[in-house]
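Input (PilZ domain-containing protein):
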Amino acid sequence: MSAASSAGLPAGIQRPAARAILFALSSPTSDIVRDCFRQFGVDTVLDDDPTGQRLLREKFEACVVALDDPLAAQLMQTARSSPSNQRILIYGLASSTMQALSYSKYGVNAVIDVPVNRSSALKVVRASHLLVLNELRRYARVPIVIDVKVETEQRNFDALTVEVSAGGLSLRTDRSLMMNSSVGLRFSLPNASEPSKPREIKIRGAVAWVNAQEQRAGVRFDVGDTRRPAVKEWVEKYLDL
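Output:
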């Protein structure tokens, strides 16, 4: 059976290529980002208009925007309010965590550190490319960068989410977490159609894995927590399941 037929398309007709639009990036940066997407079969389009008006006319699966651009907020608002691009994957080029968090209400999905280098950019694209290709439904995780308040027996601190699923989430933090330890989490899930109305979640969980070298950890939600279905509902709506 051909790839087209197995995907539900008539024989001889190829699935349209996924496209990522890159807004007003410098030449060295755009070259790196384009090469990273190319490795996963994603076409890239350069656009010098940082207001994102092209998002109102065409469908894209991803966009890349420099968060230090004064028009970054306007661009992301245009993307999230566009009927055909509400679920577009947003990659933000950020020089700091605080810069990325200041745009969390727009649902920034992944952060590429500035200055951009090929190895780190490739790692970010590799981790999120399935959603760009509309294949993330196979395991239903949403890459999303939002602030999460973590409460442990020893201390409370802020962290960043990397991915959110119905059963748990992964974190980016420089704080140490103990395997199997109990934690409380508080975060707000962005609303693609109404960025000003995020959905606040408070939920309990346990640390399932820790990668100290990469400053990441995974938390499994408590199966008995009654707020767990709200996360599942958000994930399914986000992925249009």
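The radius of gyration is 18 Å.
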